[in-house]
Protein backbone atom coordinates (compact mmCIF):
# COMPACT_ATOMS: atom_id res chain seq x y z
CA UNK A 1 0.00 0.00 0.00
CA UNK A 2 2.74 2.39 1.01
CA UNK A 3 4.62 1.61 -2.16
CA UNK A 4 1.52 2.22 -4.21
CA UNK A 5 1.05 5.65 -2.66
CA UNK A 6 4.71 6.49 -3.20
CA UNK A 7 4.58 5.50 -6.86
CA UNK A 8 1.44 7.48 -7.53
CA UNK A 9 2.90 10.54 -5.83
CA UNK A 10 6.09 10.19 -7.83
CA UNK A 11 4.04 9.82 -11.00
CA UNK A 12 1.93 12.85 -10.20
CA UNK A 13 5.01 14.90 -9.40
CA UNK A 14 6.87 13.96 -12.57
CA UNK A 15 3.75 14.57 -14.63
CA UNK A 16 3.43 18.08 -13.25
CA UNK A 17 7.13 18.70 -13.90
CA UNK A 18 6.72 17.71 -17.51
CA UNK A 19 3.85 20.16 -17.62
CA UNK A 20 6.05 22.95 -16.33
CA UNK A 21 8.56 22.56 -19.13
CA UNK A 22 6.08 22.69 -21.98
CA UNK A 23 4.57 26.17 -21.72
CA UNK A 24 5.71 29.74 -21.38
CA UNK A 25 4.79 31.71 -18.31
CA UNK A 26 1.12 32.24 -17.65
CA UNK A 27 0.25 35.39 -15.78
CA UNK A 28 -2.76 35.12 -13.52
CA UNK A 29 -4.72 38.34 -13.34
CA UNK A 30 -6.60 38.82 -10.07
CA UNK A 31 -9.71 41.00 -10.04
CA UNK A 32 -12.84 41.51 -7.98
CA UNK A 33 -15.53 41.21 -10.63
CA UNK A 34 -18.02 43.43 -8.81
CA UNK A 35 -17.11 47.00 -9.73
CA UNK A 36 -18.54 48.09 -13.09
CA UNK A 37 -17.35 49.65 -15.31
CA UNK A 38 -13.85 48.67 -14.12
CA UNK A 39 -14.54 44.96 -13.76
CA UNK A 40 -17.67 42.85 -13.47
CA UNK A 41 -19.05 39.46 -14.35
CA UNK A 42 -21.08 39.59 -17.57
CA UNK A 43 -24.10 37.50 -18.57
CA UNK A 44 -21.80 34.78 -19.79
CA UNK A 45 -20.25 34.50 -16.36
CA UNK A 46 -16.92 35.89 -17.57
CA UNK A 47 -14.88 38.80 -16.30
CA UNK A 48 -15.71 41.86 -18.40
CA UNK A 49 -15.26 45.62 -18.29
CA UNK A 50 -12.63 48.29 -18.80
CA UNK A 51 -9.92 46.33 -17.03
CA UNK A 52 -10.69 43.12 -18.90
CA UNK A 53 -10.18 44.84 -22.25
CA UNK A 54 -7.17 46.74 -20.97
CA UNK A 55 -5.60 43.67 -19.39
CA UNK A 56 -6.03 41.53 -22.49
CA UNK A 57 -4.44 44.23 -24.62
CA UNK A 58 -1.56 44.69 -22.18
CA UNK A 59 -0.90 40.95 -22.16
CA UNK A 60 -0.89 40.91 -25.94
CA UNK A 61 1.61 43.75 -26.09
CA UNK A 62 3.83 42.20 -23.42
CA UNK A 63 3.51 38.80 -25.14
CA UNK A 64 2.20 37.04 -22.06
CA UNK A 65 -0.50 34.42 -21.72
CA UNK A 66 -3.00 35.71 -19.22
CA UNK A 67 -5.73 34.05 -17.21
CA UNK A 68 -8.43 35.85 -15.24
CA UNK A 69 -9.20 35.00 -11.63
CA UNK A 70 -11.73 36.57 -9.28
CA UNK A 71 -11.09 37.06 -5.60
CA UNK A 72 -12.94 38.88 -2.84
CA UNK A 73 -11.72 42.44 -2.29
CA UNK A 74 -10.98 41.81 1.41
CA UNK A 75 -8.30 39.23 0.76
CA UNK A 76 -7.11 40.43 -2.63
CA UNK A 77 -3.70 41.67 -1.38
CA UNK A 78 -2.85 38.69 0.91
CA UNK A 79 -3.59 36.29 -1.94
CA UNK A 80 -1.32 38.25 -4.28
CA UNK A 81 1.69 38.24 -1.97
CA UNK A 82 1.18 34.58 -1.21
CA UNK A 83 1.36 33.87 -4.94
CA UNK A 84 -2.16 32.66 -5.81
CA UNK A 85 -2.19 35.07 -8.75
CA UNK A 86 0.40 37.46 -10.15
CA UNK A 87 -1.32 40.81 -10.58
CA UNK A 88 -4.17 42.81 -9.09
CA UNK A 89 -6.14 44.63 -11.75
CA UNK A 90 -9.21 45.67 -9.84
CA UNK A 91 -9.69 49.42 -9.90
CA UNK A 92 -7.12 49.73 -7.14
CA UNK A 93 -5.90 53.27 -6.58
CA UNK A 94 -2.22 53.76 -5.99
CA UNK A 95 -1.67 54.84 -2.38
CA UNK A 96 1.42 55.10 -0.22
CA UNK A 97 -0.09 52.69 2.30
CA UNK A 98 -0.63 49.93 -0.26
CA UNK A 99 2.72 50.67 -1.86
CA UNK A 100 4.40 49.53 1.34
CA UNK A 101 3.02 46.03 0.85
CA UNK A 102 2.90 45.63 -2.94
CA UNK A 103 4.24 47.45 -5.98
CA UNK A 104 2.25 49.35 -8.59
CA UNK A 105 2.71 49.93 -12.29
CA UNK A 106 2.25 53.45 -13.56
CA UNK A 107 -1.36 54.60 -13.39
CA UNK A 108 -3.62 53.65 -16.29
CA UNK A 109 -6.45 56.03 -15.33
CA UNK A 110 -6.33 59.63 -14.29
CA UNK A 111 -7.12 60.19 -10.63
CA UNK A 112 -10.88 59.65 -10.70
CA UNK A 113 -12.68 62.03 -8.35
CA UNK A 114 -14.67 60.27 -5.68
CA UNK A 115 -18.33 61.22 -5.65
CA UNK A 116 -21.13 61.02 -3.14
CA UNK A 117 -24.30 59.11 -3.99
CA UNK A 118 -27.34 60.13 -1.97
CA UNK A 119 -31.11 60.35 -2.09
CA UNK A 120 -31.26 64.12 -1.70
CA UNK A 121 -28.91 66.99 -2.47
CA UNK A 122 -28.88 68.45 1.05
CA UNK A 123 -27.32 65.60 3.00
CA UNK A 124 -25.41 66.59 6.10
CA UNK A 125 -22.18 64.65 5.51
CA UNK A 126 -20.58 65.44 8.85
CA UNK A 127 -23.68 64.52 10.86
CA UNK A 128 -24.95 61.62 8.77
CA UNK A 129 -23.88 58.06 8.16
CA UNK A 130 -21.55 57.43 5.20
CA UNK A 131 -21.16 54.07 3.50
CA UNK A 132 -17.98 52.89 1.78
CA UNK A 133 -16.39 49.61 0.80
CA UNK A 134 -13.93 48.17 3.30
CA UNK A 135 -10.28 48.79 2.57
CA UNK A 136 -10.83 51.47 -0.06
CA UNK A 137 -9.33 54.95 -0.23
CA UNK A 138 -12.85 56.30 0.27
CA UNK A 139 -13.31 54.42 3.55
CA UNK A 140 -9.97 55.76 4.76
CA UNK A 141 -11.01 59.27 3.71
CA UNK A 142 -14.32 59.19 5.60
CA UNK A 143 -12.59 57.83 8.69
CA UNK A 144 -9.99 60.61 8.48
CA UNK A 145 -12.68 63.28 8.41
CA UNK A 146 -14.04 61.87 11.65
CA UNK A 147 -17.44 61.22 10.06
CA UNK A 148 -19.56 58.19 10.83
CA UNK A 149 -18.42 55.39 8.54
CA UNK A 150 -20.39 52.28 7.67
CA UNK A 151 -18.27 49.70 5.87
CA UNK A 152 -19.40 46.93 3.54
CA UNK A 153 -17.53 44.08 1.92
CA UNK A 154 -18.86 44.64 -1.61
CA UNK A 155 -19.71 47.75 -3.67
CA UNK A 156 -23.23 46.39 -4.25
CA UNK A 157 -24.00 46.46 -0.55
CA UNK A 158 -22.93 50.09 -0.20
CA UNK A 159 -25.45 51.12 -2.87
CA UNK A 160 -28.17 49.03 -1.22
CA UNK A 161 -27.44 50.76 2.09
CA UNK A 162 -28.18 54.17 0.54
CA UNK A 163 -31.32 52.86 -1.19
CA UNK A 164 -32.82 51.49 2.00
CA UNK A 165 -31.78 54.46 4.11
CA UNK A 166 -29.25 52.65 6.26
CA UNK A 167 -26.66 55.16 5.12
CA UNK A 168 -27.30 58.79 4.12
CA UNK A 169 -24.68 58.81 1.39
CA UNK A 170 -21.93 56.69 -0.02
CA UNK A 171 -18.49 57.63 -1.24
CA UNK A 172 -16.95 55.77 -4.19
CA UNK A 173 -15.25 56.31 -7.53
CA UNK A 174 -17.35 58.57 -9.72
CA UNK A 175 -17.16 56.29 -12.75
CA UNK A 176 -18.72 53.49 -10.67
CA UNK A 177 -21.50 55.68 -9.27
CA UNK A 178 -22.46 57.57 -12.42
CA UNK A 179 -24.29 54.78 -14.29
CA UNK A 180 -26.16 53.93 -11.09
CA UNK A 181 -27.27 57.52 -10.52
CA UNK A 182 -28.25 57.84 -14.20
CA UNK A 183 -30.63 54.90 -14.08
CA UNK A 184 -32.26 55.44 -10.73
CA UNK A 185 -34.40 58.57 -10.40
CA UNK A 186 -34.26 58.32 -6.61
CA UNK A 187 -30.49 58.57 -6.43
CA UNK A 188 -28.24 61.48 -7.31
CA UNK A 189 -24.62 62.51 -7.16
CA UNK A 190 -23.75 65.41 -4.87
CA UNK A 191 -21.92 68.34 -6.35
CA UNK A 192 -19.16 68.00 -3.84
CA UNK A 193 -16.40 65.64 -4.96
CA UNK A 194 -13.20 64.55 -3.32
CA UNK A 195 -9.87 64.34 -5.10
CA UNK A 196 -8.25 61.41 -3.39
CA UNK A 197 -5.98 58.69 -4.73
CA UNK A 198 -3.36 58.84 -7.42
CA UNK A 199 -5.08 57.03 -10.25
CA UNK A 200 -5.53 53.32 -10.70
CA UNK A 201 -2.61 51.00 -11.36
CA UNK A 202 -1.90 47.30 -11.50
CA UNK A 203 -0.65 45.79 -8.28
CA UNK A 204 2.23 43.32 -8.32
CA UNK A 205 4.45 41.58 -5.80
CA UNK A 206 7.44 43.71 -4.78
CA UNK A 207 9.76 40.93 -5.87
CA UNK A 208 8.25 40.78 -9.36
CA UNK A 209 10.22 43.70 -10.84
CA UNK A 210 10.57 42.08 -14.26
CA UNK A 211 6.84 41.55 -14.76
CA UNK A 212 6.17 45.07 -13.53
CA UNK A 213 8.58 46.50 -16.09
CA UNK A 214 6.82 44.58 -18.86
CA UNK A 215 3.38 45.88 -17.89
CA UNK A 216 4.76 49.38 -17.35
CA UNK A 217 6.12 49.38 -20.88
CA UNK A 218 2.84 48.02 -22.27
CA UNK A 219 0.83 50.71 -20.47
CA UNK A 220 3.21 53.37 -21.75
CA UNK A 221 2.83 52.13 -25.34
CA UNK A 222 -0.97 52.23 -25.00
CA UNK A 223 -0.75 55.75 -23.62
CA UNK A 224 1.49 56.78 -26.51
CA UNK A 225 -0.66 55.48 -29.35
CA UNK A 226 -3.95 56.65 -27.85
CA UNK A 227 -5.55 53.22 -27.45
CA UNK A 228 -5.75 53.68 -23.69
CA UNK A 229 -7.65 56.94 -24.14
CA UNK A 230 -10.05 55.18 -26.49
CA UNK A 231 -10.77 52.56 -23.84
CA UNK A 232 -11.23 55.22 -21.16
CA UNK A 233 -13.76 57.02 -23.35
CA UNK A 234 -15.55 53.78 -24.25
CA UNK A 235 -16.03 52.71 -20.62
CA UNK A 236 -16.39 56.29 -19.27
CA UNK A 237 -13.54 56.07 -16.77
CA UNK A 238 -13.06 59.78 -16.01
CA UNK A 239 -10.52 62.01 -17.77
CA UNK A 240 -8.26 60.88 -20.61
CA UNK A 241 -4.48 61.26 -20.64
CA UNK B 1 -37.65 35.07 -18.45
CA UNK B 2 -36.55 31.62 -19.62
CA UNK B 3 -33.73 33.30 -21.49
CA UNK B 4 -32.74 35.18 -18.37
CA UNK B 5 -32.71 32.07 -16.21
CA UNK B 6 -30.57 30.15 -18.65
CA UNK B 7 -27.71 32.60 -19.18
CA UNK B 8 -24.29 30.96 -18.74
CA UNK B 9 -24.00 32.93 -15.53
CA UNK B 10 -27.11 31.24 -14.18
CA UNK B 11 -25.74 27.91 -15.28
CA UNK B 12 -22.69 28.60 -13.12
CA UNK B 13 -25.10 29.31 -10.27
CA UNK B 14 -26.88 25.97 -10.75
CA UNK B 15 -23.55 24.15 -10.96
CA UNK B 16 -22.45 25.68 -7.69
CA UNK B 17 -25.26 23.74 -5.95
CA UNK B 18 -23.46 20.62 -7.15
CA UNK B 19 -20.16 21.99 -5.84
CA UNK B 20 -21.66 22.50 -2.41
CA UNK B 21 -23.25 19.05 -2.34
CA UNK B 22 -20.03 17.35 -3.44
CA UNK B 23 -18.11 19.32 -0.86
CA UNK B 24 -20.48 18.17 1.86
CA UNK B 25 -20.41 14.59 0.65
CA UNK B 26 -16.61 14.49 0.86
CA UNK B 27 -16.13 16.65 3.92
CA UNK B 28 -18.59 14.97 6.25
CA UNK B 29 -17.00 11.49 6.25
CA UNK B 30 -13.53 13.00 6.31
CA UNK B 31 -14.39 15.22 9.28
CA UNK B 32 -15.86 12.19 11.03
CA UNK B 33 -12.61 10.35 10.42
CA UNK B 34 -10.60 13.26 11.82
CA UNK B 35 -13.00 13.40 14.76
CA UNK B 36 -12.68 9.71 15.42
CA UNK B 37 -8.90 9.96 15.27
CA UNK B 38 -8.91 13.00 17.55
CA UNK B 39 -11.21 11.40 20.09
CA UNK B 40 -9.22 8.18 20.11
CA UNK B 41 -6.00 10.13 20.50
CA UNK B 42 -7.47 12.21 23.33
CA UNK B 43 -8.15 9.09 25.41
CA UNK B 44 -4.97 7.23 24.46
CA UNK B 45 -2.76 5.60 27.09
CA UNK B 46 0.40 7.13 25.67
CA UNK B 47 0.78 10.67 27.03
CA UNK B 48 2.20 12.44 23.92
CA UNK B 49 -0.60 11.04 21.75
CA UNK B 50 -3.14 12.14 24.35
CA UNK B 51 -1.63 15.63 24.47
CA UNK B 52 -1.73 15.83 20.70
CA UNK B 53 -5.41 14.84 20.61
CA UNK B 54 -6.36 17.27 23.35
CA UNK B 55 -4.34 20.10 21.85
CA UNK B 56 -5.95 19.55 18.44
CA UNK B 57 -9.44 19.70 19.93
CA UNK B 58 -8.71 22.69 22.14
CA UNK B 59 -6.85 24.82 19.59
CA UNK B 60 -9.14 24.34 16.62
CA UNK B 61 -12.30 24.79 18.68
CA UNK B 62 -10.90 27.94 20.22
CA UNK B 63 -9.96 29.80 17.05
CA UNK B 64 -12.79 31.66 15.22
CA UNK B 65 -13.71 29.94 11.95
CA UNK B 66 -13.13 32.96 9.78
CA UNK B 67 -9.65 33.60 11.20
CA UNK B 68 -8.91 29.95 10.75
CA UNK B 69 -10.06 30.03 7.14
CA UNK B 70 -8.16 33.17 6.25
CA UNK B 71 -4.94 32.22 7.99
CA UNK B 72 -4.86 28.46 7.84
CA UNK B 73 -5.60 27.99 4.17
CA UNK B 74 -2.87 30.36 3.08
CA UNK B 75 -0.49 28.73 5.57
CA UNK B 76 -1.42 25.25 4.34
CA UNK B 77 -0.95 26.29 0.72
CA UNK B 78 2.44 27.82 1.52
CA UNK B 79 3.41 24.74 3.52
CA UNK B 80 2.77 22.45 0.51
CA UNK B 81 4.65 24.78 -1.79
CA UNK B 82 7.55 25.01 0.66
CA UNK B 83 7.89 21.21 0.71
CA UNK B 84 7.75 20.99 -3.07
CA UNK B 85 10.27 23.80 -3.27
CA UNK B 86 12.71 21.85 -1.10
CA UNK B 87 12.16 18.80 -3.26
CA UNK B 88 12.27 20.29 -6.78
CA UNK B 89 14.65 23.21 -6.41
CA UNK B 90 17.30 22.28 -3.85
CA UNK B 91 19.76 24.76 -5.34
CA UNK B 92 17.49 27.77 -5.65
CA UNK B 93 19.63 30.71 -4.58
CA UNK B 94 17.05 33.21 -3.35
CA UNK B 95 15.27 33.30 -0.01
CA UNK B 96 11.64 32.22 -0.01
CA UNK B 97 10.49 35.08 2.18
CA UNK B 98 11.23 38.47 0.69
CA UNK B 99 9.51 41.10 2.74
CA UNK B 100 5.83 40.29 2.46
CA UNK B 101 6.25 38.05 -0.53
CA UNK B 102 6.26 34.30 -0.50
CA UNK B 103 8.37 33.10 -3.40
CA UNK B 104 9.02 29.54 -4.40
CA UNK B 105 10.56 28.42 -7.66
CA UNK B 106 8.04 28.15 -10.54
CA UNK B 107 8.17 24.34 -10.53
CA UNK B 108 7.04 24.26 -6.90
CA UNK B 109 3.92 26.33 -7.47
CA UNK B 110 0.77 24.45 -6.62
CA UNK B 111 -0.94 24.18 -8.99
CA UNK B 112 1.57 25.39 -11.55
CA UNK B 113 0.72 28.85 -12.77
CA UNK B 114 0.67 27.43 -16.30
CA UNK B 115 -2.00 24.85 -15.56
CA UNK B 116 -5.53 25.67 -16.63
CA UNK B 117 -7.92 27.46 -14.31
CA UNK B 118 -9.86 24.26 -13.64
CA UNK B 119 -6.89 22.81 -11.75
CA UNK B 120 -6.69 25.93 -9.63
CA UNK B 121 -10.33 25.48 -8.82
CA UNK B 122 -9.92 21.82 -7.98
CA UNK B 123 -6.94 22.63 -5.80
CA UNK B 124 -8.91 25.36 -4.00
CA UNK B 125 -11.73 22.90 -3.51
CA UNK B 126 -9.32 20.34 -2.08
CA UNK B 127 -7.94 22.92 0.35
CA UNK B 128 -11.47 23.79 1.33
CA UNK B 129 -12.33 20.16 2.02
CA UNK B 130 -9.21 19.70 4.10
CA UNK B 131 -9.79 22.86 6.11
CA UNK B 132 -13.44 22.06 6.73
CA UNK B 133 -12.45 18.53 7.75
CA UNK B 134 -9.88 19.81 10.23
CA UNK B 135 -12.23 22.38 11.75
CA UNK B 136 -15.29 20.18 11.94
CA UNK B 137 -13.13 17.19 12.87
CA UNK B 138 -12.15 18.97 16.07
CA UNK B 139 -15.78 19.51 17.03
CA UNK B 140 -16.63 15.94 16.08
CA UNK B 141 -13.68 14.73 18.16
CA UNK B 142 -15.09 16.52 21.17
CA UNK B 143 -18.54 15.02 20.60
CA UNK B 144 -17.15 11.52 20.13
CA UNK B 145 -14.87 11.87 23.15
CA UNK B 146 -17.92 12.68 25.25
CA UNK B 147 -19.90 9.85 23.69
CA UNK B 148 -17.14 7.36 24.45
CA UNK B 149 -17.24 8.39 28.07
CA UNK B 150 -21.02 8.07 28.17
CA UNK B 151 -20.90 4.33 27.47
CA UNK B 152 -21.60 2.69 30.86
CA UNK B 153 -18.36 1.71 32.57
CA UNK B 154 -19.67 -1.68 33.76
CA UNK B 155 -20.01 -2.75 30.12
CA UNK B 156 -16.30 -2.25 29.59
CA UNK B 157 -15.45 -3.92 32.88
CA UNK B 158 -17.56 -6.93 31.99
CA UNK B 159 -15.78 -7.20 28.66
CA UNK B 160 -12.43 -7.09 30.46
CA UNK B 161 -13.66 -9.79 32.84
CA UNK B 162 -14.46 -11.97 29.82
CA UNK B 163 -10.80 -11.64 28.88
CA UNK B 164 -11.04 -9.21 25.96
CA UNK B 165 -7.96 -7.23 25.10
CA UNK B 166 -8.18 -3.37 25.22
CA UNK B 167 -8.38 -3.25 21.42
CA UNK B 168 -11.23 -5.73 21.38
CA UNK B 169 -13.07 -3.84 24.11
CA UNK B 170 -12.68 -0.64 22.14
CA UNK B 171 -13.90 -1.98 18.80
CA UNK B 172 -16.52 -4.50 19.95
CA UNK B 173 -18.03 -2.89 23.03
CA UNK B 174 -17.24 0.81 23.15
CA UNK B 175 -17.50 1.92 19.52
CA UNK B 176 -20.81 0.20 18.64
CA UNK B 177 -22.45 1.66 21.71
CA UNK B 178 -21.12 5.19 21.59
CA UNK B 179 -22.86 6.24 18.33
CA UNK B 180 -26.21 6.57 20.00
CA UNK B 181 -24.75 9.13 22.39
CA UNK B 182 -22.78 10.88 19.66
CA UNK B 183 -25.57 11.23 17.12
CA UNK B 184 -27.36 14.31 18.49
CA UNK B 185 -24.07 16.18 18.66
CA UNK B 186 -22.95 14.98 15.24
CA UNK B 187 -26.35 15.86 13.81
CA UNK B 188 -25.91 19.42 15.05
CA UNK B 189 -22.48 19.59 13.48
CA UNK B 190 -23.88 18.40 10.15
CA UNK B 191 -26.48 21.17 10.23
CA UNK B 192 -23.79 23.76 10.98
CA UNK B 193 -21.57 22.36 8.23
CA UNK B 194 -24.36 22.67 5.67
CA UNK B 195 -24.60 26.36 6.40
CA UNK B 196 -20.85 27.00 6.66
CA UNK B 197 -20.23 26.63 2.93
CA UNK B 198 -20.31 30.40 2.15
CA UNK B 199 -16.89 30.50 3.80
CA UNK B 200 -15.80 28.78 0.60
CA UNK B 201 -15.52 32.05 -1.25
CA UNK B 202 -12.72 33.08 1.07
CA UNK B 203 -10.86 30.21 -0.55
CA UNK B 204 -11.76 31.30 -4.07
CA UNK B 205 -14.39 28.59 -4.55
CA UNK B 206 -17.52 30.17 -5.95
CA UNK B 207 -20.43 28.75 -3.99
CA UNK B 208 -24.19 29.31 -4.15
CA UNK B 209 -24.20 32.35 -1.88
CA UNK B 210 -21.55 34.07 -3.98
CA UNK B 211 -23.54 33.53 -7.17
CA UNK B 212 -26.82 34.53 -5.54
CA UNK B 213 -25.26 37.78 -4.40
CA UNK B 214 -23.65 38.37 -7.77
CA UNK B 215 -26.79 37.57 -9.80
CA UNK B 216 -29.18 39.35 -7.47
CA UNK B 217 -27.17 42.56 -7.32
CA UNK B 218 -28.46 45.59 -9.17
CA UNK B 219 -27.62 45.49 -12.87
CA UNK B 220 -27.53 48.64 -14.94
CA UNK B 221 -28.48 48.41 -18.61
CA UNK B 222 -25.00 49.38 -19.78
CA UNK B 223 -23.40 46.20 -18.55
CA UNK B 224 -25.98 43.48 -19.16
CA UNK B 225 -28.81 42.45 -21.48
CA UNK B 226 -31.07 41.94 -18.48
CA UNK B 227 -31.02 45.05 -16.29
CA UNK B 228 -32.87 44.74 -13.01
CA UNK B 229 -33.02 46.28 -9.56
CA UNK B 230 -31.90 44.76 -6.33
CA UNK B 231 -33.16 41.19 -6.65
CA UNK B 232 -30.98 39.72 -3.97
CA UNK B 233 -34.05 39.09 -1.84
CA UNK B 234 -35.43 36.65 -4.43
CA UNK B 235 -32.16 34.86 -4.91
CA UNK B 236 -31.56 34.58 -1.21
CA UNK B 237 -35.17 33.46 -0.83
CA UNK B 238 -34.46 30.61 -3.22
CA UNK B 239 -31.39 29.73 -1.16
CA UNK B 240 -33.50 29.82 1.98
CA UNK B 241 -35.87 27.27 0.48
CA UNK B 242 -32.93 25.12 -0.60
CA UNK B 243 -31.38 25.17 2.84
CA UNK B 244 -34.70 24.54 4.59
CA UNK B 245 -35.45 21.58 2.34
CA UNK B 246 -31.96 20.25 2.79
CA UNK B 247 -31.94 20.51 6.58
CA UNK B 248 -35.42 18.99 6.72
CA UNK B 249 -34.25 16.02 4.66
CA UNK B 250 -31.20 15.72 6.88
CA UNK B 251 -33.41 15.70 9.94
CA UNK B 252 -35.52 12.88 8.52
CA UNK B 253 -32.42 10.89 7.70
CA UNK B 254 -30.90 11.50 11.10
CA UNK B 255 -34.12 10.37 12.78
CA UNK B 256 -33.98 7.09 10.91
CA UNK B 257 -30.35 6.57 11.80
CA UNK B 258 -31.18 7.28 15.44
CA UNK B 259 -33.96 4.70 15.34
CA UNK B 260 -31.56 2.13 13.95
CA UNK B 261 -28.79 2.93 16.44
CA UNK B 262 -31.12 2.81 19.42
CA UNK B 263 -32.02 -0.82 18.77
CA UNK B 264 -30.87 -2.98 21.64
CA UNK B 265 -29.20 -0.12 23.50
CA UNK B 266 -29.37 0.37 27.25
CA UNK B 267 -30.96 3.79 26.85
CA UNK B 268 -34.49 5.00 27.59
CA UNK B 269 -35.40 4.98 23.91
CA UNK B 270 -33.85 1.54 23.46
CA UNK B 271 -35.87 0.22 26.37
CA UNK B 272 -39.06 1.70 24.88
CA UNK B 273 -38.31 -0.01 21.55
CA UNK B 274 -37.78 -3.32 23.29
CA UNK B 275 -41.08 -3.05 25.17
CA UNK B 276 -43.00 -2.06 22.05
CA UNK B 277 -41.67 -5.10 20.25
CA UNK B 278 -42.44 -7.48 23.11
Order of strands across the main sheet of chain A: 5-1-6-13-7
Q: Assembly type of the shown chains?
A: heterodimer
Which structural category do the helix and sheet elements of chain B fall into? Answer: mainly alpha
Shape of chain A: globular
What portion of residues of chain B is helical? over 70%
In this structure, how is the largest beta sheet of chain B organized? 2 strands, antiparallel
Structural class of chain A: alpha/beta
β-strand percent of chain A reads 15-25%
Largest interface: A-B, 52 and 48 residues
State the total count of DSSP E strands of chain B.
2
* CATH 2nd-level architecture of the largest domain in chain B: Orthogonal Bundle
Brief summary:
The complex is a heterodimer of chains A (241) and B (278). With 241 residues, chain A is an alpha/beta fold. Chain A has helices at residues 2-22, 50-61, 76-81, 96-99, 137-145, 155-163, 174-183, 209-224, 227-235; strands at residues 26-31, 34-35, 39-41, 47-48, 65-70, 87-88, 103-104, 114-118, 129-133, 148-152, 169-173, 188-194, 203-204.
Amino acid sequence: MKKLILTTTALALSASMAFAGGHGKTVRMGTEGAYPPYNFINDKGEVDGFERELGDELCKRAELTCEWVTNEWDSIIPNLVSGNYDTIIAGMSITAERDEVIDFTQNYTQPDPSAYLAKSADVDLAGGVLAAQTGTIQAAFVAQQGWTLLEFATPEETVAAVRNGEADALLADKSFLKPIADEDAELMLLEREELIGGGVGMGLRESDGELRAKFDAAIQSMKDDGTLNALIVKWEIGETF
Amino acid sequence: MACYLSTPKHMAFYWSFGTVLVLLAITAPLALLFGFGGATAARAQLAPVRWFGKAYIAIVRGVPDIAFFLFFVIALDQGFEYLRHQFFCPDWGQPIRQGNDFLVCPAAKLPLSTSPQIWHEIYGFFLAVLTFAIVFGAFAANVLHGAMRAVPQPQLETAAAYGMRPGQIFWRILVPQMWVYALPGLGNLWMVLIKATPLLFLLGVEDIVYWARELGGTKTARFTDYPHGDWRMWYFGALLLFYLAFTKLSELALDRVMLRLTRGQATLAGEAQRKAAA
